[in-house]
């Protein structure tokens, strides 16, 4: 699943106008073991670097680095396991804080559980 994500990121990077079209691969390594574990990494001359390791179909974790159009360095870390895909990075959007009235309502609901009513049968 994540290899598809990395592939898509590379396609976008290759077709983007701000990327050096003459970039070269400086380093590339790949290792796949009989037990299903793997690791790979690559680095390009235009500042893209990716490392990933995992166990096929069970776990994937890694990091990707590149530069935004304005020259800002971007770092994306991820982990994908039984809990789903969990990306992290300073460039990713974060949810706004929960409003105080919502927190108060949730606390009231927690402290006042709903009483179960008996089931009434009409026959």
Description:
With 123 residues, the protein is an alpha+beta fold. It is built from two helices and six strands. It has a six-stranded antiparallel sheet, with no helix packed on it. InterPro entries: Cuticle_Struct_Prot, Insect_cuticle. This is Pupal cuticle protein edg-78e.
Concise structural overview:
Helix content is 21%, strand content 37%. With 123 residues, it is an alpha+beta fold. It has one domain (25-111).
Poorly predicted regions are none
Tell me about the biggest sheet? Answer: 6 strands, antiparallel
Secondary-structure element pattern, one letter each: HEEEEEEH
Q: What is the domain total for the residues?
A: 1
Radius of gyration: 23 Å
Strand content: 35-45%
Number of strands: 6
Distance between the termini: 54 Å
Give helix % range.
Answer: 10-25%
Provide the spatial order of strands within the biggest beta sheet: 1-2-3-4-5-6
What structural category do the secondary elements indicate?
A: alpha+beta
Principal-axes geometry comes out as elongated
Total DSSP helices:
2
Report mean pLDDT, rounded to a whole number.
85
Layout of helices and strands, plus pairs?
Layout: H1 2-15, E1 25-32, E2 37-44, E3 49-55, E4 59-67, E5 73-81, E6 84-88, H2 100-111
Antiparallel strand pairs: 1-2, 2-3, 3-4, 4-5, 5-6
Task: Provide keyphrases for this structure.
single chain, 123 residues, alpha+beta, 6-stranded antiparallel beta sheet, 37% strand
């Amino acid at each position: 699943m994540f290899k598809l994500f990395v592939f898509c990121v590379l396609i976008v990077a290759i077709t983007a106008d701000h990327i050096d079209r003459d970039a070269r691969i400086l380093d590339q390594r790949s290792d796949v073991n009989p037990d299903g574990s793997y690791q790979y990494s690559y680095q390009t001359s235009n500042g893209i670097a990716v490392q990933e390791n995992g166990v096929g179909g069970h776990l994937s974790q890694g990091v990707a680095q590149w530069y935004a159009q304005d020259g800002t360095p971007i770092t994306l870390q991820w982990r994908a396991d039984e809990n789903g895909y969990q990306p992290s990075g300073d460039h990713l959007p974060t949810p706004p804080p929960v409003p105080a009235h919502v927190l108060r309502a949730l606390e009231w609901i927690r402290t006042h559980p709903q009483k179960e009513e008996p089931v009434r049968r009409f026959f």
